[in-house]
Amino acid sequence: MLKIGNHLSSSKGYLAMGKTALKLDANTFAFFTRNPRGGQAKAIDEEDVKEFLELAEAHHFEKLVAHAPYTLNPCSADAHLREFAKNTFADDLKRMEHVPGNYYNFHPGSHVKQGAEAGIEFIAGMLNEVLTPGQSTTVLLETMAGKGSEVGRNFEELRAILDRVKLQEKMGVCLDTCHVWDGGYDIVNDLEGVLEEFDRVIGLDRLCAVHLNDSMNGLGSHKDRHAKIGEGQIGLEALVRVINHPKLRHLPFILETPNDDAGYAREIALLRSRYEEVE
Ligand code: FE
Ligand code: FE
Ligand code: ZN
After folding, report:
1. N vs C: which end of the chain shows fewer Cβ within 10 Å?
2. How confident is residue 279, by pLDDT bands cut at 50, 70 and 90?
């Protein structure tokens, strides 16, 4: 069965997200662990979490893909902003243990004139401070579109971060189809070649989740503007090949397309109808 869901609002808690996911015929979902702009997180409501975990078990939910606030910049030139990113990240990892065994995805950050090398060192440095041997969460680096000075604009930069992390077994990668396309990886005409490249540089065993998005812009545009499935320059057929690819079809697919609930339900139904069940 296709593991698919979309990005949900976490403002009403876990149980509300679980119920929304069921309504959309999703069996996983993504959510911001706190306000996407950062800041104070709401206290965890134990009862809400308990009811959600029961619901998730009863309905065979797959691993969730939580998302760190996108304003965190672990490789900022400003030591205070790096400290803020680290503290928020560490707090989120602690909170994630209420829903054990899921994914926590983050944008590596923007190096802003310091150079990718310096950025990579800061990002790995933060990970080495916040990851703990006892955590059950796997932290995912997201492939980025290479907008501005984003680190993670190619597979090599993600590999360089991973190489510097001590607790390797706590790390994975989330591939965003809009971002890699905008980053110059031609998943439309050469999905096979892109996956071979991913395997050679990072290793497909590190790939834990896919953000399934169409892109408003062309290959290599470095823009990062998501489009609805089939309404962008990647197109429906290429995304259908992504969800059915033998090396990807077992992964959770998260929609981050510009939609309301009805739109997400339609995209989920469409992709489910195009998923080829194999024995
Ligand atoms: Fe993201
Ligand atoms: Fe994404
Ligand atoms: Zn994006």
Report:
1. C
2. low
Catalytic residue among 107, 111, 159, 206: 107
Residue 121's Cβ-count burial label (10 Å; 0-12, 13-18, 19+) is: middle
Active-site residue (options: 256, 266, 272, 275): 256
Q: Report the separation in Å between the CA atom of 44 and the middle of ligand 2, taken as the mean of its atom positions.
A: 25
For position 230, what pLDDT does the model report? Answer: 98
For range 220-236, the mean pLDDT: 98
User: In the chain, where does DSSP find H-type helix?
Assistant: 14-23, 46-58, 79-96, 116-130, 155-164, 177-182, 191-201, 236-244, 261-273
279 given a catalytic annotation: no
Question: Residue 104, Cα to own-chain centre: how many angstroms?
Answer: 7
59 belongs to the catalytic site? no
80 contacts 118 by C-beta, under 8 angstroms: no
Q: Are strands 4-8 and 253-255 parallel, antiparallel or unpaired?
A: parallel
